[in-house]
Structures
1.
Amino acid sequence: MSVAEVLVFTGVGRAFERREVPLPERLSAGEVLVAIDLATICGSDLHTVEGRRSAPVPCVLGHEGVGHVVASQRLGVAPGQRVTWTLADSCGHCSPCSRWRLPQKCEHLFKYGHAAWGDGHGLNGCYASHVVLRPGTTVVPVPDGLSDGLVAPANCALATVINALEVLPDPCERVLIQGSGLLGIYAAAWLKCRGIEEIYCVDLSAERLAAMPAFGGQPIVAGQAMPLVDLVLELAGTSQVINDGVRCLRPGGHYVWAGMVHPQTPLDLMGETVVKGCLTVRGVHNYAPRHLVAGLEFLAQHQQRFPWAGLVSPPLKLAELDLAFDLTRQRRWQRVSVRP
Ligand SMILES: [Zn+2]
Ligand SMILES: [Zn+2]
């Protein structure tokens, strides 16, 4: 096949446009052409489609995916290999990349699923039959035993959670997770596998909390009494939960903020509370390649331990992407998947 099928986003309120584009005839050094086997719809894609997050239009959205290599100009990456990849492409030379261990803050950062149509080969997102991975993108092999549905959200949601939980307070025996979406589910499972027994999860919706026990989390409906914990993990996306979180922290506790990725997050917090509580507050955005590698190892090790299969919908056709977004709005699944 010499053409790729892409579903192009052209603006809020418009149906996706199906287009065919020629596959690149030649790849540059370091580039990898991947045929996408499955992509999932992340919350941030829904934000873009509904106009709460800006994107250059036209563009190909979608950054969570798994596929196999069709052509490669990179040593160690061969056609036929099953892979996933970091959602950010980084230069490897600037200060964030080389000195601060924050390649996701690269001065020349490129993010799949957020790029203008005319950028590079145009195959920049996962709602397509193919994507061209750039030289600064880490390509991670996927073990055969892991299903596409299990792997697709790993390069966004799971890797971000692993970054958020990379540094734990010592001791860390009790954790409170704020928010019970897919990131909250991953966080509970990851902590459970690290041997942490008391993992609480708070959410406004009792219905959304229903999945937590199967992944090791004990549900608390907002408003109920909260336990004192060593670590609070904010995945709720709202600053309204911050004072509740601070109140739950023991002296010397850690608070990790990872959900508040938009500007409507004003704080009403006394500096004194952080100082006298000896608290550590850590912001986490996206992740570095090592977190994605750890995520795949985690899935391979624990694929039988949790009911992962119920999180991701059976695949819809890529051409049914509008329908897939409708299904995402219904929140029946943590992720809706599409297959080219
Ligand atoms: Zn995402
Ligand atoms: Zn860089």
2.
Amino acid sequence: MSIKNIATNSVVFNSFSKVLSNYYHNQYGGIILAYHEIAIERFKEHLALFRKHEIVSLSEMVNRKKKKLSTKYLITITVDDCYLNTLPALCDYCSATQIPITFFVPTDFIDGKALPPFIFNNIKKLSKGRKIDINNQLYDFSDEQSCNTFFNSLHDLMYYQSENEYNPIWLQIMHQLVEQGVCQLADFKVHNPPVNWDFIAEKSKNELLSFQSHTVTHQAAAGLSAAQFEMECKQSKQKIESITNKEVTHFCYPYGGLKNIGNTAPAIVQKMYDSAVTMVRGRIQAQQNDYLLPRIPLYDLDTKQRTILKTIIK
Ligand SMILES: [Zn+2]
């Protein structure tokens, strides 16, 4: 074979092996599951589907990816927001069965502040059928279509902007609903409660139960200035470390879509964390950015069949 042929063949071989490797990782790359609220029985049902898999910690998954080792048949479990209706049972089950699990903690939420989506949902629910003046324009929310249009754009503000953009509008609506006798200010803060810091301090003593960062205020990174976002990364890390006495090395973006994250956040996270997870659906692949890792979200409504479809278990 001439030198020319060898060169041509190795180019062909390299591109073929690249295609093969991409296919392999798409099909067989590791999976990071993303939970929020989940009933323990459903959680057990999901895990039973991954019998062939090994459940590894988030650090192990990230380390293997960074070393370009195979993540085939590896599963990592992550849980966002730390709800009281979810964590105690999961912690008990994972401790008893020796399963590593990672919880992402929004620190203001644990401090007693409702997460923005709860306040938004309460405002939307309590505004139905009411007339509200917002920035000198009267909105009639008895009309379902205009109500939905308005609240869809208000929802987008929360998803992509900082609270400085949506809070003034929220406050106008909240105060008028109180003036109209619809509700009390406290009604807007009604939410599904989180676990408390004592719980996190106690559970974090177990090496299997890991508590990592999910910002302070749970605002979309895309809406924050670089300085604000960096402060959120730093403060949430410090707070959780002070409670758990363990290093916090993983980060989870609020809302988690690429548009919620924006372009500058990953490089800021990289300054102080080993990895960051998103809500972009996919499996782990060697060439992915360690600060934009995909996950596969699972919910209570994900039956056995739906879970198989979502994860395409081999
Ligand atoms: Zn969250």
